[in-house]
Structure formats: C-alpha cells, structure tokens
Design goal:
Elements (H helix, E strand, L loop, with lengths): L17 E2 L10 H9 L11 H14 L3 E5 L2 H13 L4 E5 L3 H4 L4 H4 L4 E5 L1 E2 L2 E2 L1 H7 L11 E7 L12 H13 L3 E5 L3 H8 L3 H5 L4 E5 L10 E5 L1 H13 L8 H14 L3 H18 L12 E5 L8 H10 L2 E2 L1 E4 L2 E5 L6 H17 L2
Parallel strand pairs: 1-12, 3-4, 3-7, 7-8, 8-9
Antiparallel strand pairs: 2-10, 5-6, 9-10, 11-14, 13-14
The structure holds pyridoxal-5'-phosphate.
C-alpha cells in the first residue's frame, strides 16, 4: 500500500471514482481486445463458429461436464437450464434470496413456465428439512412436480458466501430422491472454488448442470457458459434459439471468454484479499457495520435502522463523494471488489463508508 496515498476522496469533484457496484463493471483486458480482433469466426447458427466451439469445450472441461453452450448472460443460462429441466412444466425450488428468483425478471416462471417456490434459507443455504418437505414427486396429486432445485454459489445476496460442499451434497441427495435435477447458478463459481481451494468442477459436480459468468470478476465483456451432459446441451441449444440467443460470428466475444478462462481465474485471489482488507478496515473502525469475514469478493455493510441511515440514502451520500455502491436491501450495502480496485481504493472506501454511515445515525 502507498503510504502517501490520500485517505479521502476530494469532497467537491472526485478525481477518482471508485466503483464497487459490481464486478460486472470490469473492462476487457488488452489481451482480450487483441484476441477479439484476431478471432477466427463463423456463423454459429449455420455451420458453427470455431472460436465459440473452442470456448464451449474449454467451459465444459473447466466444469467437468460433457458439453457446454455459450450464452449471452448468466440470466440466459439459468433460463435455458430451467426450460430444459422442466420442459415448461413443474416447479423449481430455490432459496428465498436466489438471484434466479429475485433478479432475473421472473423468467423461470414467466418464460419457462415453472412455478417458483422459495425455500426458507440462511446465509444462502436452504433449510434442508424445509427443502425436503417442499419436494413433490412426479405423481403428486396436488402440486406441480419438482423439476429442478437451484443452488447459487458463491451466493450474491449472502455476501459472496461460498456454500459448503457437504451442504451441496445434501441438496443433491434430496433432489435426486424426488427425481428433480440440480442446477448450480455458479455465476461466480471461480470465486467459490478459490475460496474453498477446490477446482470449479468439484462444485459443479453437485449439479446436473451449471451456469457460470465470464463477464464478472473474470472481466470478459459479455457471456456465460451453461454446461451439462451432451444430451442436455443438444436440448439447451434449441431452447437458446427459442429465447433469441442464437448468435452468429460470436467468436468475436467468445475469444475474450477464452482469455478470461485461461488467464483471469487466478487473479481473483487479489479481489478476495482486498475484500478481506476492506472488511478488516471496517471492523477496526466501526465493527457494528460488518458481519462475518467475506469468503470471496463481496462485503456487506449493515447500517442498522433505516430512515436517515438507510442504504439508499447512504449510497447517495457515497456517490456524491465518488464512491459507487449498491444497496442490497433497506439497511445493507453491498460492496463488490474487482480488478479495478487497488489497495488505495480499499483504504479510501473504508474511510468514506465509516463517514457516510456515521452521518446517517
Ligand atoms: C448469482 C448470479 N446469478 C446470475 C446472474 C446473472 O448474470 P447476468 O447479469 O450475466 O445475466 C448474476 C448477476 O449478477 C448473479 O449474481
């Protein structure tokens, strides 16, 4: 850390904006831009795009699955998975704070036709008894049969929690007993894997299928991978077309995804270290603001009572100082660390948050 660095943003006009809204703000690297320029491409909807195919093969290998499909976004990956697993019928069981239920436009119900049932959860993990009690077999007389269970790791709403592998195994057991598929929403599966010191495939193994994003901490400009069995991917390809995700010379962006997979997973350790540093600064200055130490690259700040101290007002105060954050809910801020956040930014962010939180009390 630079000892001469300022510990405050200039009050009037921030010379330097610190953007902790999401790791999706990461810009493509020079290597990605060069790979995009040089990509060999074809028509992926006709006879195929070789660079897309290469990315799909690399994505499948990383996840330990037979095959994979390049999709425009994590949302599209989760939607297509729901379409295949449920074939426009049945029920999806998800944790009550799952991204797929809260932040994807309700697509698994409105487009994929699944009834979406939120299971009581804590720290990103569904209550296993509640999960088992919610399962309905295919001959249920009263409810829609459970077609799919979704687990999310790392868990966005739970502050980037990397869900314990025994928990994932327990979910899988219960789902299988009811004949339901397990889909892993692994938008940040590389963060979860790093935190648990396992390859991402060791996490994906708990799901029949998995989505992960190239466009978050891995810094690609767009795109996600949906992986599963060969048969699943054949059907997913058809549903991807149905939802408008059939692409043409997509190798132009898949090339950046290949660089993301090859070069970027290792550096997520820097994000995790800095998230921990931010948490430590906050703990040292204002311990009431934080909970457990972060597993990955997300830090939650608990502001206490809403009103003047509410998260929206606090985020606005911070934005006026050049620090961009997003409220997670009425009294919690979510801070996401990524490639463009250095050690000085962490120190400044901590000081600004303590100041802005204090003003709301
Ligand atoms: C856990 C999780 N799943 C899915 C998504 C959706 O990804 P996308 O924004 O690419 O649609 C996100 C995005 O933040 C996410 O955090």
């Amino acid at each position: 850390m630079n000892a001469n660095a300022p510990d405050r943003l200039p009050a009037e006009k921030a010379e330097r904006r610190i953007d902790l809204r999401s790791d999706t703000v990461t810009q493509p690297t020079d290597a990605m831009r060069e790979a995009m320029r040089a990509a060999v491409v074809g028509d992926d909807g006709l006879d195929g795009d070789p660079t897309v195919r290469e990315l799909e093969a690399a994505g499948a290998t990383a996840m330990g699955k037979e095959d994979a499909l390049f999709v425009a976004s994590g949302t599209m990956g989760n939607l297509v998975a729901a379409l295949v697993h449920a074939n426009r019928g049945g029920e999806a069981l998800v944790d009550e704070h799952a991204h797929v239920a809260r932040s994807e436009g309700g697509g698994i119900s409105r487009l994929a036709g699944l009834m979406c049932t939120a299971v009581r959860s804590h720290d990103g993990m569904m209550d296993l008894d509640a999960l088992a009690a919610s399962m309905r077999g295919s001959y249920s007389r009263h409810g829609a049969p459970t077609a799919m269970v979704v687990v999310e790791t790392s868990h966005n709403h739970a502050g980037g929690r990397a869900l314990p592998l025994p928990y994932l195994a327990a979910v899988g057991e219960r789902a299988r007993a009811a004949g339901a598929a397990v889909h892993v929403d692994g938008a940040r599966i590389f963060n979860a894997a790093l935190a648990q010191d396992v390859p991402p495939s060791a996490i994906a193994a708990f799901g029949d299928t998995v989505t992960f994003c190239l466009s978050k901490g891995l810094s690609a400009p767009m795109g996600s991978i949906l992986a599963g069995s060969r048969d699943f991917v054949v059907r997913a390809r058809s549903y991807r077309r149905m939802v408008g995700g059939g692409l043409r010379q997509a190798g132009c962006v898949a090339a950046a995804g290949l660089v993301a997979l090859r070069d970027m997973a290792g550096r997520l350790a820097d994000d995790h270290r800095r998230a921990r540093a931010l948490w430590t600064h906050l703990r040292d200055q204002e311990p009431a603001l934080i909970g457990n130490a972060p597993d990955t690259n997300i830090v939650l700040v608990h502001l206490g009572a809403s009103g003047p101290g509410g998260a929206t007002a606090c985020a606005a105060r911070l934005a006026s100082r050049g620090l961009l954050v997003r409220p997670r809910d009425a009294d919690t801020l979510r801070l996401v660390i990524h490639r463009h956040i250095d050690d000085d930014a962490i120190r400044i962010a901590a000081a600004e948050i303590v100041r802005a939180a204090g003003m709301g009390r």
